[in-house]
Q: What sequence folds into this?
RNA sequence: GCUCCCGUAGUUCAACGGAUAGAAUAUCUCCCUCCGAAGGAGGUGGUACAGGUUCAAUUCCUGUCGGGAGCACCA
């Protein structure tokens, strides 16, 4: 089923008009005009509006109003069958008013919409790296934002037809593990760790940093143990393998609880360790390496960046070294068109350096993109620190979220069994948490505030879930829906159809800025409009049979869009809550 | 000191360089003998400051002020 959405339709009309104009004036530079086509709420500025005339005006060096007149004349002459009229307003905007029956005509199409209708023609292969927890440490609230965002971005690309590789870059290497090994050898007990792996290992790590304050020798001991690890020391390698195994169990438990899709690749940093010597050799051959204070660095002056440290004085590697190796590995192995790194904003410099080195090594330029997001800060507005042990774990947040929704469910759904109530509380709690992480842009720092985070009113998952539950309840009561008469629908209903047909807009915006908040906004607006409709208009109880069927079709279409939206956001669709 | 991110209603956030800057929350009213009141209707309230770029600036540039993060052997 091929569908042309209104935005594409208008866009086509304008492109055609610009082409005709370019032909008329023999000025091909007109073809380079970029313009927007925007969905408009209500009908003040039409159903869709465009600023195309401003771009045309600039190139033709005429006033925008004149350019708008020219475009309008061409489009009108082409007999646009679905457009009732075009108005020029606001100094040169073209406002397109669709015929009322255009929306009615599209009604029975709504419930049949599928991802295919939204497929991006590019369909590229893309690696998305996210989550990336550290072995032997609990996932904390920051990982939660990262994981939920990365998972949803991956869903989005998958939805529009990309080949997506979900990549979990596990932190299982580096000096920190030397430190952990020191701590374990000094103070650790096997039984204790077996019983409570992550917690006990974190305790050891925190203790290490406490003791470090009055025993500066520890720092060196940690570096030595890591050095041994890099040189293949058996005892240390076994310890690390054990830590990794226990950690993965815990991570996977959390992913499952959160409804995070399975990763395609889960590769620890340690994996790249054997690839390092060749990498250093290659860097050296390209004359990129330089010795400085006993360490090896790559100068990045040409990029106006500080030098990147590749090898420590004692010959062991660094985060950056392994990142370069990993990048090369990914390109060689999978040949993606792009690698999205969903990593915190505080690592901006690191990624600028990484991509600069990739360039120097002749890797396809701009392959990497850092999808940065702001930190989740503590209640005091300061950064959480693992070393000091003042973190809020992902598990704590999840439990709180579930508890909070449990209270509401107990109050609102006394009719359900305890089992059903628990089930719903868990689903709603997790949905709320995920939605909260996605509803804002990436670059606003989230100051941790349990109250706000777990609020179940307003622009939140429960609002969406509730609306969906009401509508699907109607649909299940209705049973089979008849043919209906779409032309009996009125303004409010037609506007809803228009809104449903604007789903593509939300997807495009979300993809453009690699953020799900545009989609969240759209879904919230759709639900709000639909709720308003629901409150003001009888649907199931409509006396006119044909109109009833049409209204039901509309509700079905709304549900369809909500289902697809939820799927992308990684939120569970619940037929009842 | 240098670099990056961010300053929008009391609060939390939207607005590809576009038209009258939108929501949520809080607060104050109203609505369940009709399909789920976790809902709906209405009121109040805002672009840190100073310049510049242009048909048009919350958005871009420069500077000031304020908050956060990063800057060589951590990741």
A:
């Amino acid at each position: 089923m091929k569908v042309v959405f209104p935005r594409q339709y208008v866009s086509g009309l304008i492109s055609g008009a610009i082409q005709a104009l370019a032909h008329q004036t023999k000025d091909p530079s007109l073809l380079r005009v970029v313009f927007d086509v925007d969905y408009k709420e209500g009908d003040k500025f039409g159903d869709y509006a465009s600023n195309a005339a401003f771009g045309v005006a600039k190139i033709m060096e005429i006033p925008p109003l004149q350019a708008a007149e020219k475009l309008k004349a061409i489009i009108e002459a082409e007999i646009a069958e679905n457009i009732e009229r075009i108005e020029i307003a606001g100094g040169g905007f073209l406002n397109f008013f669709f015929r009322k029956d255009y929306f009615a005509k599209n009604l029975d199409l709504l419930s049949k919409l599928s991802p295919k209708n939204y497929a991006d023609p590019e369909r590229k292969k893309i690696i998305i790296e996210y989550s990336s927890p550290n072995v032997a440490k609990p996932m904390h609230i920051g990982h939660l934002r990262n994981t939920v965002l990365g998972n949803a971005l991956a869903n989005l690309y998958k939805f529009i037809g990309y080949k997506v590789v979900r990549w979990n870059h596990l932190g299982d290497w580096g000096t920190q593990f030397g430190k952990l090994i020191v701590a374990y050898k000094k103070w650790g007990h096997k039984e204790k760790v077996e019983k409570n792996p992550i917690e006990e290992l974190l305790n050891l790590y925190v203790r290490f940093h406490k003791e470090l304050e009055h025993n500066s020798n520890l720092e060196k001991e940690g570096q030595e143990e890591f050095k041994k690890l890099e040189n293949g020391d058996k005892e240390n390698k076994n310890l690390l393998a054990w830590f990794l195994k226990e950690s993965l169990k815990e991570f996977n438990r959390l992913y499952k609880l959160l409804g995070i899709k399975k990763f395609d690749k889960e590769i620890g940093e340690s994996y790249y360790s054997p690839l390092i010597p060749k990498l250093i050799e290659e860097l050296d051959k390209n004359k990129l390496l330089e010795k400085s204070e006993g360490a090896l660095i790559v100068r990045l002056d040409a990029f106006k960046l500080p030098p990147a440290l590749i090898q420590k004085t004692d010959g062991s590697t660094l985060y950056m070294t392994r990142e370069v190796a990993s990048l090369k590995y990914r390109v060689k192995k999978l040949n993606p068109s792009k690698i999205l790194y969903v990593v915190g904003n505080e690592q901006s410099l690191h990624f600028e350096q990484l991509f600069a080195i990739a360039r120097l090594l002749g890797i396809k330029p701009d392959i990497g993109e850092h999808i940065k997001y702001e930190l989740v800060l503590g209640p005091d507005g300061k950064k959480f620190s693992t070393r000091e042990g003042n973190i809020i774990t992902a598990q704590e947040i999840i439990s709180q979220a579930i508890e909070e929704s449990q209270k509401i469910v107990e109050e609102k759904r006394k009719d359900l069994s305890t089992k059903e109530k628990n089930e719903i509380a868990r689903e709603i709690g997790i949905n709320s948490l995920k939605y909260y992480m996605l509803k804002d842009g990436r670059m606003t720092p989230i100051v941790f505030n349990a109250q706000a985070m777990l609020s179940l009113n307003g622009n939140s998952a429960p609002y969406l879930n509730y609306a969906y539950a009401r509508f699907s309840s109607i649909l299940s009561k209705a049973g089979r829906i008849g043919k209906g008469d779409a032309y009996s629908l009125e303004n409010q209903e037609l506007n809803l159809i228009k809104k449903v047909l604007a789903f593509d807009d939300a997807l495009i915006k979300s993809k453009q800025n690699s953020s799900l908040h545009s989609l969240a906004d759209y879904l919230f607006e759709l639900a709000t409009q639909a709720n308003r409709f629901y409150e003001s208009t009888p649907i199931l109880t409509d006396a006119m049979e044909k109109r009833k069927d049409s209204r039901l079709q509309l509700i079905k279409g709304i549900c369809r869009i909500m289902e697809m939206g939820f799927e992308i956001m990684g939120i569970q669709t619940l037929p009842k809550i």
Remarks:
- Chain A is about 55% helix and 10% strand.
